[in-house]
Amino acid sequence: MDVLQLLLSGLANGCVYGLVALGFVLIYKATEAVNFAQGDFMMLGAFVMVGLVNPHFMGLNFWLAVPIALLIMGALGYLLDLAVLRFMFGQSQTAVVILTISLGFVIRFIAGVIWGHEPQSLHSPLALGDVRFGGVVLSLADIAVIVVTLLMTLALWQFFQRTKLGLAMQAASQNQMAAYYMGIPVKRVQGAVWALAGIVACVAGILYASKGAIDISSGFIGIKAFAAAVIGGFGSLPGALMGGIIVGVIEPFAARYLPTGYSQIAPYAILIFVLVFRPHGLFAQVRVKKV
Amino acid sequence: MRFHFKTSYDQDIRLFPDWWNFSLYLALLLLMLVLPWLIDGFYLGEVTNVLIWAVAGLGLMLLTGQTGQVSLGHSAFMALGCYSCVNFMELGLPFLAAFLLAGVVTGIIGAIIAIPALKLHGVYLAIFTLALAILADDLIVILEPWTGGVNGYFAPVIEIFGIEINRWAAPETWYYLALGTSVFVALLYRNLLRSPLGRAFAAVRDSEISAQAMGVDVARTKTMAFGLSCAFAGLGGALMGLFAGAFNNETFNFLIAIQLLMMIIIGGLGFIHGAFLGAIVIAFLPQFLSILTDNLGSASIPGLETGVFGMILIAFILFEPMGLYGRWLKMRTWLELFPFARRDMFRRQKTYLKTERLR
Amino acid sequence: MSLLELDGVTLKFGGVTAVNNLSMSVNEGEVFALVGPNGAGKSTVFNMISRFYRPVRGSIRFDGGDLLTHRAHEIANLGIARTFQNIELFERATVLENLLVGRHRHRRSTLPEQLFFTGRVRAEERAHRLAVEEVIDFLDLQVYRDKMIAGLPYGVRKVVELARALATKPRLLLLDEPASGLSVEETQDMRWWIDDIRRQMGITVLMVEHDMGLVSKVCDRVLALADGAKLAEGTPAEVQSHPAVIEAYLGTSAVSKTANAQGERI
Predict the structure, then answer these.
(1) If you average pLDDT over residues B168-185, what whole number do you get?
(2) Which uninterrupted H or E stretch holds B160?
(3) Does residue A4 surpass a pLDDT of 90?
(4) Interface check B11 vs C, CB under 8 A
């Protein structure tokens, strides 16, 4: 039972990592850039929700606030692309990495100014109530996280496989110039994907905030989500979810069975291991550059 | 407008191409030497800080600017340099020996760590090194006997040839130590740039495939770049920790590595001058901001520094990817050519992204 | 005497056979051309000689030694230099620095010597510079010596790549489409240069080229490839008039029509 409990709570945590990792993969798939600010997007999404729902801010109804928050974060993602990332069109991956790291700094600063530096908890209906299966206790939030994450991954995966926009996004990333000539509005597609990433981050944020308190450095779980995305192979949506679950499950077990100090290392040790031995993740394919 | 006529191959091989250039740098060095008599102890400490950041920055510059390998994990190597220096001193080595040995040891360990990372490119390398930096933070806590863990270390007394280097009693001693190190490292850096290895670095950065075809062993070259880069970063880290007086795992947090990377980008990637200019920005920005907020009469805003730093960086990447030094070069060319400079002369070439991945 | 010898070389990418049982031999001092339609496997042959790809079968011998035992960066040391189809220069370096990288295989100084720039490094640098200046004179690149590659026009880049390969002082020079994208005058220059490289410097040249005008003027022997296999081999005139070659280029029906219309170009 003990093991099962660890497994399930790890699963719930892992799904949050997976959700953030989905954001990375989404942007990577469509623009070949890596958004190091995705974790901070999530933090911002959570705080937007806090701002809408919590009584000493706006005090809206939770279910009313969800679509508003999603809309705000989606718009924000689109505007960021419009105002900043569009100018990076065609620049090196590394430049985008550094740009998004700086974006993360700025987002953290702005969030700190608006919502303060104290940890806050979201007044979420998901935070109330536990569900028991035999000896295993799961909070409502944990269950919500798992369900929503699975649905989200499935939806996004189908989106990329089936819809015209999804295919256009993939084409745009593989050869911007050729995609442009084929009549794909590369820039608008890129804007759409950033908006989508904002929405995914907001979902992750709401769920994360339902599970516990958040503060402005909550965005650093983005680093664990990175580990998740890399383990899953950066180009793959289901891979990101799998990676997230692997990282999430390993954490509680490492904390339980390894001496203190060593347990925090576990996700990063795995990350390094994967990078060295399966550099492109457990579920992805890569080919060498053709001369 | 100054013309530069070449009459001998040595003009390209020498440290300074001509007398004018040489005298400029000589004047700068003289100014730096008499600086302790010109400014007070507080600002001397700040300049010392700039020089220390510049040493670590030169280390990262060698890797990122010269060889094109991005590292978000140099804080790990700064920590390694610092802790090994202190441990060598505990073993009874004199400071100077311990200091240089720490650089060498950090370099060797850095090169060894680089070997599994050789195949990683771009973002993957960035993530790998970021993971290293976070691991280092935890390792410092675990390796408590050598590092003092969370409680940290108090810097031992430093003596060079019987002169005590003391930040509080004699700030100029620390200043000269930092100045000496930065000039030393910059000199080694410059020597590398004009010798085959430096060119091999640039070759690996610009095209691994043709570097190989020209006989450059890409793996070996990258390992060397990592090693040298880590050695310099180790020296910088040792100075940084000792200058702070007390240090623990937080002193070498992974955010330091990120700041270091941002610093060299603001300064100008690929230029020695860039490391120094970037260090000036990073060291004086907090001062500048606190003076600004004081004058505006507002309370200090937590996180303002990093926020402003992020905004500056975004502005640089968008508008001046070549950094401060690149801007200066453009301004100088414009002045030299005046009034013949054309507007489009410095326009960036448009590039389009092509994937290197299958799906 | 044959300098480079390919024997039964086969390379597959997944299920596609890029090069199929190819045998050829390039003699010391000759200019040898590989021709064939796009995708025939010409550049793939080059990439196998450069050791970027490993053939699944067959052997490649250079000057009597087995080339396949060497790694990609060791090939230059043996005396094989090459250019690339889609110019691979070091963009953020000057022309001079690019050419000096070509001298990489001639360096003898060690890392500590370079760090402290000892007398030996200085002497070597002078020697490298002298060698590079000879190439610069030969290819008329003086004007561009201190220019960044990033700002140079296409034609000049092509020449710089040739110069960089020559700076390695090779015995065998591989030119991957030296005249593609060049103007008529530039192609003329390229022709004289290839002639001089062979005559004055005594370097053996193996090239891939589509411009049959150039090929027939500078090459001693030509090998035509299609779908990774050898179609014909011989003097330029022989290969050009070979029915299998014409068929590969123009399709079966065209053979009769062009039988008496074989001009300079296929």
Answers:
(1) 93
(2) strand B158-160
(3) no
(4) no
CB contact under 8 A, A106 and B307: yes
Give me B7's structure tokens: 């009459």
Six token digits for residue A247: 């990282």
Beta-sheet pairing, B158-160 with B163-165: antiparallel
In terms of DSSP H, where are the helices of chain B? 10-13, 19-38, 41-61, 74-90, 95-117, 122-142, 144-147, 171-193, 196-206, 208-213, 218-244, 254-267, 272-296, 304-319, 323-337
Residues in chain C within 8 Å Cβ distance of A291: 43, 47, 52, 84-86, 88
Q: Contact B317/A95, CB-based, under 8 Å?
A: yes
The interface residues of chain A toward chain B in range 166-205, judged by CB-CB distance below 8 A, are 170, 173-177
Positive/negative CA dihedral, C36, C38, C40, C46: positive
Q: What is the pLDDT of residue A30?
A: 79
Distance CA B81, CA B233 (A): 7
Could you give the CA distance from residue B155 to residue B83 in angstroms, rounded to a whole number? Answer: 10
- Chain A positions touching C86 (Cβ under 8 A) are 291
User: A197 with A26: CB under 8 angstroms?
Assistant: yes
| Residue-wise pLDDT tens digits, A46-74 | 999 998 988 888 888 888 899 999 999 99
For residue B205, list chain C residues with Cβ-Cβ distance below 8 A: 90, 92
For residue B133 the two structure tokens come to 């930096």
Amino acid at A194: W
Secondary structure (3-state) at A261: coil
* Partner-chain contact B354 A109, CB within 8 Å: no
User: In the CATH hierarchy, which fold is given to the domain comprising B38-346?
Assistant: ABC transporter involved in vitamin B12 uptake, BtuC (1.10.3470)
* Contacting subunits of A (3+ beta carbon pairs below 8 A): B, C
The pTM (predicted TM-score) of the whole model is 0.90
Cis before B339? omega within 30: yes
Q: How confident is the model at residue B239 (pLDDT cuts 50, 70, 90)?
A: very high
Structure tokens at B65: 């600017």
pLDDT in tens, C180-238: 889 999 999 999 999 999 999 999 999 999 888 899 999 999 999 988 888 889 999 99
Q: Does B194 touch chain C if contact means CB atoms closer than 8 Å? A: yes
Nearest chain A Cα distance for residue B181, angstroms: 28
Residue with tokens 């994360």, as numbered in its chain: A208
Query: Length of chain B in residues, anyone?
Result: 359
Single out the residue of B94, B101, B49 nearest to residue B80, CA to CA. Answer: B101
Cα separation, C35 vs C206, in Å, equals 11
How far does C9 lie from chain B, in Å, by closest CA? 21
Tokens representing residue B306 in the block: 């990093």
Strand (E) or helix (H) holding C9: strand C2-13
| pLDDT, tens digit (0-9, with 9 covering 90-100), for A22-45 | 988 888 887 778 889 999 999 999
Q: Which residue has the tokens 């606030």?
A: A65
Q: What angle do CA A92, A97, A99 make, to 5 degrees?
A: 95
DSSP summary character for residue B354: B
Residues 6+ apart with CB under 8 A from B92: none
CATH dotted code for C1-79+178-266:
3.40.50.300
Q: Which residues of C touch A289 (CB under 8 A)?
A: none
Residue B8 makes CB contacts below 8 A (sequence gap 6+) with none
Burial of B339 (0-12, 13-18, 19+ CB in 10 A): exposed
Query: Given CA atoms B264, B269, B272, B273 in this order, what sign does their dihedral have?
Result: negative
Query: Which of the other chains make 3 or more beta carbon contacts under 8 angstroms with chain B?
Result: A, C
Q: Cβ neighbours of residue C118 under 8 Å, at least 6 residues apart?
A: C109
Question: Domain residue spans in chain C?
Answer: 1-79+178-266, 89-169
Q: Are A163 and A179 in contact (CB under 8 A)?
A: no
Q: Nearest C-alpha of chain A: how many angstroms from C157?
A: 17
SS3 (DSSP) at A290: coil
Between chains, do C114 and B202 touch, taking CB under 8 Å as contact?
A: no
